[in-house]
Specification:
1047 residues; disordered N terminus; Severin; Protein transport protein Sec24A; 8-stranded mixed beta sheet; Sec24-like_trunk_dom; Rossmann fold; alpha+beta
Length: 1047
Amino acid sequence: MAQQNLPNGMPPQMVNSRPPFNTNMEKPPLQFNGIHSSHSSRDSSPSTRPGQQVPPSQLPPMRSTIPPSQLPPSRSPTNLINQKMGQLNVSNSNSRFNTSTPNQTLQNPSGLVSAFSPINVPKTDNSAGNQVFRQQLQQPPPPQQPQGNHSPYNSQGQNRTLINHGVPPYNHQIPQNQVLPNSQQTPHVNYNPPFQPQTYQRPLVNNHNQAPPHFQTMSQPKPVQNNNPVAQGGFNYNAAPNMNMPPPPQTQFKTNLHSNRYPQSQPQQPQPNMNPPQFYQQPQQQQHSVTQHGFNKMWGQDHVDLLQTPNILPREKVTPPKVYLGNEVLDSANCSPEVFRCTMTKIPESNSLLQKSRLPLGILIHPFKDLTHLPVIQCNVIVRCRACRTYINPFVFFVDSKRWKCNLCYRVNELPEEFQFDPVSKTYGDPSRRPEIKSSTIEYIAPAEYMLRPPQPAVYLFLFDISRLAVESGYLQSACAVLLEELKSLPGDARTQVGIVAYDSALHFFALGEGLSQPHEMTVLEIDDVFLPCPDNLLVNLKDRADLLTDLLTQLPTRFNNTYDNSSALGPALQAAHKMMAATGGRVTVFQASLPNVGPGALTAREDPSQRASTEVTHLNPANDFYKRLALECSGQQIAVDLFVVNSQYMDMATISGISRFSGGCINHFPLFKASRVLQNERFERCFRRYLTRKIGFEAVMRIRCTRGLSIHTFHGNFFVRSTDLLSLPNVSPDAGFGMQVSIDESLSDVQSVCFQAALLYTSSKGERRIRVHTLCLPICATLTDVIHSADQQCIVGLLAKMAVDRSMQSSLSDAREAFINVAIDILSSYKLSLNMGNGSSSLNAPQCLQLLPLYISALLKSTAFRTGTSTRLDDRVKAMIDMKTKPLSQLIQIIYPNLYPVHNLEEQPIILNSEEEPIPQPPHMQLTARCLDSKGAFLMDTGEHMIMLVCPGVSTVFLNEALGVRDYVSITDEMYELPVLDNLHNQRLHQFINYLNDEKPFVATLHVIRDNSPIRIEFFERLIEDRLENALSYHEFMQHLKTQIK
């Protein structure tokens, strides 16, 4: 077995070592359980880190509690569900959408499906909290204290008392040597000490990552001026609003909800004030405040009534929420949400607060995404923390010009002399000007200590199924034609190697040795004990043997035209590939068209076509572990296996997909493929062309680190977990996404922010060892309202989809569907409790940041992966589940909820300019419902890899003539797969808009133009998922159902 390339230059025997923060060394790490997700945790001390001593007078008042009458009752028909699906932390049992340990029982004792998360809210009484409020309101207001210009609420010529419910403001520290006089100790006003310049010389970043008291070093040197860009101007008054503070005083007005197609500004109507009594406020504050609606909308804390807002989708594209760290420099330096994204833009300070919100906590990462701007650094020493091995990043704290404090473990590290040099300005002195401190995404060219062996060449092996069904499908002609065109475009250098093997009931090897005038075919009939017919010339240098490879790809499509062999020896072909590539590693590309039925790994058909519409779906798990075990052997030799499935019959995707899932490969599926079908063949060729030419990383490993107090316990994607936080990726591609579930193990109340860092170590196609690092920083919040309003609805949906796939395989599809519904009920119930709304309310309120969550969940229930009652081929369902686990979030959302646009009036829509200064029309996003369609319009649906344009019968003749180039409506045929290029505004705008959509895709999507009265119109209307479908509720009916379940 070849040695692994490991980060940090660690020897192989140290790969499985525990992470640096694991204090329970006797407890072995949980083993990978074979369900393609894994559990790992960092054991930590149960004790909470001691915080700074605070006088009792400055403690915050008791929070109002929740009466038991307001708690939602059990939704079980027999009221037996009192235990949820499991906690979102590192619990090993009953986890919500979580993988189970080998000893875990899949069903709960009651035999009923449990809800999404265990939220154990203690029974409390509000009387104590109300008494505190009454006592405080009876006290006279305290005298105003002098404040400096550092006060967050200070305005020119006026000092204000900080109203903060007894919680110190963000980044505010009270000097320990200053004591508030007893006469001024009031329980409801924070003391603001006089301005002390030496206390506020640090920028906000310096306070973000202050270590807890027992982590501080013995001597705390004073920070050096200008050691960070934000320090040059002192306190940043133009920074983003501090989201850890409560909002300014509110009024008693509430947004008047409306149900227009696209929400418009509406006059506000007075509503009863549902908020608890506020502390004493100075009259001056009311003069400078705005309405509640204005501030809530500014900070994303507005809410909508889902029952009264049927057109919930915004007109523009849904953008990810912004992370506010309290400083513009840090906000701009944070990792892009297209690469690294968390389900919350603020992390709860405790696990109990997270459980009260009923939101899942996790991260989604697209580590090898194609980037237009990527800083690449080559240096002799890569600066890392000596304790936790974190890479230096924009969120560290420079103690002085030669030392820095890690933002994950708080250790103070020495700064190498080389880091003082700025490669841009060619000057020394200020480490904050380095690219590593300015960007959260950066790539290093790794030095020699990051290699255990010289980087291997790029090696590509292609396995072609040549059984009768494969030849009849016609895929071989298309695949060989594309490969022949792109052969010289394969990523690599002068050492690149290529090989080709064909298989039916036997294995056909092709020797391409020096001196041969044509490829030499060797057939091996013995498939039970595979061997290589010759040791050399099966994998040859691409540059030296280009002519022989061209001849082979030209002859191969016709070589087996008259075959009658119905057998497919996929298992033996993969075993042979493993033998061929064991010394170098590389990528194996498999084209499979039929069920493997001979040799090792042979399978039998398990699907019953009569049960495709059943609510109980079986055979989602592999029939055997042959392909998984072979994948692990390939992963150990740095071999990844990618599948192109071009089947016309059932071929047990649930079993054969294991070869790609555990080796870090990818799976592409083309059901019922026939090369004679233009649309299918066009999609196949575009996908394969993108696959051959995209970037690739070999011999990769990825490690995820996080701030102490957090732990990552479940991983989602195609990989093999080598240790608790190390993922083995023999190949990594720009189209691969990953997900991780996170738990809060310790209280985070003594820190201001937390960080996640992903480090991807890989070998480029040019033979360079590189490290790509992404760092995400998130602030801490202490209230339930802040947690709920920090939710990222699209990221939550992406994580829930991955968790639901695991639940479907471990338990049943019906359990996963019920859990989807329960998560919507839980989150909306939690938000209702946070508003203190009684049971008599007829509205179904959701925060603005989660207004699309029920819509996405409704769409998931109707998706190919999770729908029931609709005839769905088992292979199609399994492939859809694989997409849920592996697609990047942007592609996954488009699969769940496709985009719909009106295109008959693009010349009237607002425009934007692209990078080439071309005008791009911006039509509005439309709801996926037939009520939004107009009989006089044309509508484009974008599903990601495919676009459908529906032309209604009443569309104008001008649009037909100028945009589509047809004389009349009946001239649109069912085989219209492209648009003509005409010299008029309608046609130009349509092409510009479609090209604009394709620019964001891995490859150009196929297009199909259909009439409203065409028999193939079902292809469009079955994707209108907000309407009532076969055995599925409409979106409005689903909202009504949620309302009845929320008490």
